[in-house]
Write a structure and sequence with these properties.
The protein contains 14 helices and 14 strands. The chain is α/β, with parallel strands linked by helices. Strands 3-2-4-7-1-8-14-13-9-12 form a ten-stranded mixed β-sheet. The longest helix is centred in the middle third of the chain and has 20 residues.
Length: 425
């Protein structure tokens, strides 16, 4: 165990299964956890007996699923903490793992997994829904209370509706914005996803198809939406001293800042965008920039929570890449650049590549694993290991993960600056 005065924290190993469509593969959450966890350990060459704690994230499961998944990896008697923060569960696990390291532990695993249905649902209907206040407020400020489609349950309908009304609000506020802007973002993410062997959707779809097929709730179509998924992802978080002792400097990616913001009074004001997490993301990003001393113009690559393509557009502004109302400038002036591995990545503002993994829209969205899947992608990017998705020369990365109910987690990563650690073994 390291000294609590050592505040630097690093991700040294990541693992991720392919994210699959629900009900299409014969496996269960212990399999997902085992594959992701063992791959993360293999990635950094560590044995499980060096892990001092595990933080497990999932939403669709009974208590202690984390133990059941971890026991597939080993039985060492270490603490296992199970957490649930809706769609931000994976980043919440990463944050708690980092806090354990900052508090004095040397090596902690964050492990996320989810086995889902084809839509969203709530199991404990005899209790007050934790998102009822949000959905009631959505109706109170002007949303239609009816289901958007009769073939969808209330939870799926309400989540789509919330972001659709947020998109309408944005379009009304900024008259230059059209549905085409959301289509372009979805197309970018589908094209990126075609180069991701772990993505659920690996086929490029035309912009015409994205725009016209299966409208869910104007302006959101199915092609602009993240599919639910089954899968797992994991990250090994370590102290600086641990990195030195185990010669992991070539694997280590530093977490230089990380902040979670939950609902504020603005969430229950008059804005659908704030109800769907805009102001929370904005505040979390501001805290990261302040803590790290790194500004948005120094960021090279981002993974953001594109549950719907309109939310990615909102995040261009919430994360301060551009001023409010200017997000579409990034979309409409995007350039496709060939990287050194022969792949094509879309550069926004001649600076940023957003969701090179394909984002949730292509990669899929197994809720408990999503945030850790984002982490894995950014670690691969900063190591230069992202193959045809690689953002050449990436030094700084930013991650945004959001869950209704609610929590926004923003994490900043930096390529390891010190390549000369002497071994203390």
């Amino acid at each position: 165990m390291t000294s609590s005065g050592n505040t630097k924290t690093y991700v040294v190993g990541v693992g991720m299964t392919k994210f699959e469509r629900p009900l299409t593969k014969k496996w269960d959450y212990p399999d997902m956890g085992r594959i992701a966890g063992k791959d993360a350990l293999k990635d950094c060459g560590l044995s499980y007996d060096l892990v001092e704690s595990v933080v497990a994230s999932y939403c669709y499961g009974e208590p202690t699923c984390g133990q059941r998944a971890v026991y597939e990896i080993g039985l060492t008697g270490i603490p296992v903490f199970n957490i649930n923060n809706n769609c931000s569960s994976g980043s919440s696990a990463l944050m708690l793992a980092r806090q354990l390291v900052k508090a004095g532990q040397d090596c902690v695993m964050a492990l996320g997994f989810e086995k889902m249905e084809r839509g969203l649902s709530e199991r404990y209907t005899d209790k007050t829904s934790p998102v009822k206040r949000h959905m009631d407020h959505m109706v109170n400020i002007g949303a239609d209370p009816e289901l958007i489609r009769k073939d969808l349950n209330a939870m799926t309908s309400d989540v789509v509706k919330l972001f659709a009304y947020a998109a309408r609000e944005y379009m009304k506020k900024y008259s230059q914005v059209s549905m085409d802007d959301f289509v372009k973002i979805a197309y970018k993410n589908r094209r990126h996803g075609a180069n991701n062997p772990r993505a659920t959707l690996q086929r490029v779809v035309s912009m015409e198809s994205i725009a016209s097929k299966n409208v869910l709730c104007h302006p959101i179509t199915l092609g602009m939406s993240a599919p639910t998924g089954d899968g797992g992802a994991a990250a090994i978080v370590c102290s600086e001293d641990f990195v030195r002792r185990h010669n992991l400097h070539n694997k280590a990616v530093e977490i230089v800042a990380q902040h979670m913001v939950t609902d504020m009074p603005s969430s229950f004001g008059t804005s659908f965008m704030d109800l769907s997490g805009y102001s929370m993301a904005e505040k979390a990003a501001q805290k990261c920039y302040h803590e790290s001393g790194i500004g948005p113009k120094q960021v090279d690559v981002l993974e953001v929570h594109d549950c719907f393509s309109c939310n990615e557009l909102f995040m261009y502004e919430a994360l301060q890449l551009v001023p409010k109302g200017h997000g579409t400038n990034l979309v409409n002036n995007a350039k496709w650049i060939k990287n050194k591995n022969g792949g094509m990545v879309c550069k926004l503002g001649d600076r940023w590549v957003v969701n090179p993994s394909g984002g949730l829209e292509s990669k899929g969205h197994p809720i408990g694993a999503t945030g850790l899947g984002q982490c894995a992608e950014l670690v691969w990017q900063l190591r230069g290991e992202a193959d045809q998705r690689q953002v050449d020369g990436a030094q700084v990365a930013l991650q945004h993960n959001f869950g209704i109910g609610g929590a926004a987690v923003v994490t900043m990563y930096r390529k390891n600056q010190d390549k000369t650690y002497p071994s203390k073994l």
